[in-house]
Amino acid sequence: MKTIILKGNICHTPECGRLETYPNSYLVCENGICKGVFHDLPKKYEGFPICDYGENLIIPGMVDLHIHAPQFAFRGTGMDQELLEWLKMRTYPEEMKYADPAYARRAYCLFAEQMKKSATTRAAIFGTIHKDATLILMDLMEETGLVSFVGKTNMDREAPPELMEKSAGSAAVDTLEFLNAVQKRNYRNTKPILTPRFIPCCSDELLAELSKIQKEFDLPVQSHLSENPDEVSLVKKLVPEAAFYGEGYDRYGLFGRPASTIMAHCVYSSDAEINRMLENGVWIAHCANSNMNLSSGIAPIRKYIEFGMRVGLGSDVAGGQTESIFRAITDTIQVSKLYWRYLDDKAKPLSFPESFYLATKGGGSFWGKVGSFEEGYAFDAIVIDDSLIPCPHDIGVADRLERAVYLGMDITGIRAKFVNGKPIDMEDLKRNQ
Amino acid sequence: MKTIILKGNICHTPECGRLETYPNSYLVCENGICKGVFHDLPKKYEGFPICDYGENLIIPGMVDLHIHAPQFAFRGTGMDQELLEWLKMRTYPEEMKYADPAYARRAYCLFAEQMKKSATTRAAIFGTIHKDATLILMDLMEETGLVSFVGKTNMDREAPPELMEKSAGSAAVDTLEFLNAVQKRNYRNTKPILTPRFIPCCSDELLAELSKIQKEFDLPVQSHLSENPDEVSLVKKLVPEAAFYGEGYDRYGLFGRPASTIMAHCVYSSDAEINRMLENGVWIAHCANSNMNLSSGIAPIRKYIEFGMRVGLGSDVAGGQTESIFRAITDTIQVSKLYWRYLDDKAKPLSFPESFYLATKGGGSFWGKVGSFEEGYAFDAIVIDDSLIPCPHDIGVADRLERAVYLGMDITGIRAKFVNGKPIDMEDLKRNQ
Predict the structure, then answer these.
(1) Which of A73, A405, A411 has its CB closest to that of B392?
(2) Whose CB among A331, B53, B152, B360 lies 3.0–4.6 Å from B371's, allowing a Cys bridge?
(3) CB A197 within 8 A of CB A225
(4) What is the value of pTM for the model shown?
(5) In CATH, what number does A3-60+371-432 get?
(6) Nearest CA of chain B to the CA of A157: how many Å?
(7) Is A399 an 8 Å CB contact of chain B?
(8) CB contact under 8 A, B392 and A75
(9) Each residue's pLDDT tens digit, B164-214
(10) Where do the H-state alpha helices sit in B244-323?
């Protein structure tokens, strides 16, 4: 039995909106699982070595429910375009390059290294349609020590020929080959996830094939939903018989039931769509930064929380410019304030403890007991050194946490990172800088 | 005559929306003034030493038209509150501390150091009501080498007693003492600016006194305008005879005419107010980040640009969480997209070159010929090393600039900074880190 004890200023949100802070306390892990937070170390743990992080903040690892690995290469550029134009002009030309495994390795190395450096401990990741490239991505993610779901994307229409699978049948063959190759690799932390890109790019035949594969392998699913008005109109034209966008997936069991499913965005979900998501237990990946950059809008997250829906945060690189989930936390709060001001004055802005919860336990629940330091939760933690932020007065732990997140201390202040109780070698990263 | 020649990838926006990029070119400065950008160095400059920044980006320094120095101490905290509550709970209690010059020195040292490190070369800065503290702030800003206007704030109502001047008369006496002390100091780069906090905190008597002082010293003015609906209502109650908020200042010549004036926010300016700003040539300090954090709203910047108004960007620390004007550039673009989506589909979102212009030449115009590398402009420049952003493919200079700004490379990537042709000692800052 392996026991790890961290000491520092410990913070987590066991409930949405309730931030608990434990100054100078102990966080205990046994065999990768949290045993709780203690102000005084219980007798049974005396004698174990203690990692004393002094005044540092210790918080749950961040969970990124939606990120595109191949788009990392052009993040922060081409931001003056809207979704469909941006896909055509920026995204698809880049994604084509991943047909070349050498390019894929070069680009995915940079992505994986950044993910390792970041505050993120778990992520749901889109690849491209290319199975070789996506296997390289999975190899590299496995090496980081992070936990992830990685999907080979499926697309068979409304895209450049180089990015379309030849037929639904060949897409199925490719996907099965990909899944078989993954099984042989026996990854510990890296799992496959079915990834129909979005309804505009997926024919009914393709979705029917994926449905069969989903049942055979009992796979989770990730995709996009009701992100942008033009996209929603396009879906209505392509699938006129569906009562709402999400029904396009739901008809094939790719919408929460039977497959555990993450749907990114949900900015323009109709009441019927919301009800179906709620019934089926779909996870919503809220990507506030991307929804601003691509002029999409603001998702009604307050409503989703009040309805008891499953909500986590996504960076959506490269619709979002950065993989930082700290940034996603503050963007979520900021756009919720504009939503309240302009769209619905009953939708109270999200508070910091609420948004922090979404970034940890909210998204973490896709993996089960993840995103909190309660007993029985997976031991994913990051240690933040905020001592470089000068301050002329005393400041409490809750304020320090809020400040560290607002000032983006995940870029310069991560001192240590643990996933399932295993330390990630951050020094290794510093040496390579 | 002092000649400086920088070599690198040079970018600026001589017109709003027109980004010019000069790969591997020369930027020439004589006696603090730009002589232009040259692809091939003119014969007359041959033989002068060249600072070769290789592949680095060289851009005009950032201009911050609105920042509160005393609020820097609590930036990134207390962000779950709206303007008037936040002033009462967070801002005023902090500002009271500046009655103590020792505290002021400690806090303002941290502020000035951060401003020196930042991409900002010029700023319009609020202090507190305390003249001693504000002189300390000016001493410290002068030491940074940056160019700034710094204001002793005036307030005589609607604030805690500790933060109110006893009467309009005593406020005038204090302000005159402050101005006389400033004159004796013979600062090179640091100038005083009249700073009535905002109409809610300034009686007519106080504004009348400031009007006299403005004329006597020919001072510029900075204040707040139409930031938040509750604040606008409060002003209507306090000054029922004014046709619009800004008339409260205009009646005393503190609204662009005769005083050069910066008004921060202008989110809820009426048509009459906008017309008066246009007639009087008021500068608008657009503070997108603060306007989100304090749930204020989104200023109609596209409209202001189309009307030919004077617009620059402000960080508004600590309503804004960071002094980064790179962040202000991207926030400006992002909220303009939401404005277009939800409030006015004729108000085209701001492009990157437009927002970059606001952050440089737009705000810079408050100082005259500032914010561009055209001939005759003040030589304010920063050099950005973006080589730490890994990229698997070739990327052009314009994309690199956009990426550096979106990824916040002003935090880790500033290699050099020049103000009026004088280099700021950045190494000195690194040594102290």
Answers:
(1) A73
(2) B360
(3) no
(4) 0.98
(5) 2.30.40.10
(6) 27
(7) yes
(8) no
(9) 999 999 999 999 999 999 999 999 999 999 999 999 999 999 999 999 999
(10) 247-250, 271-280, 288-293, 301-306
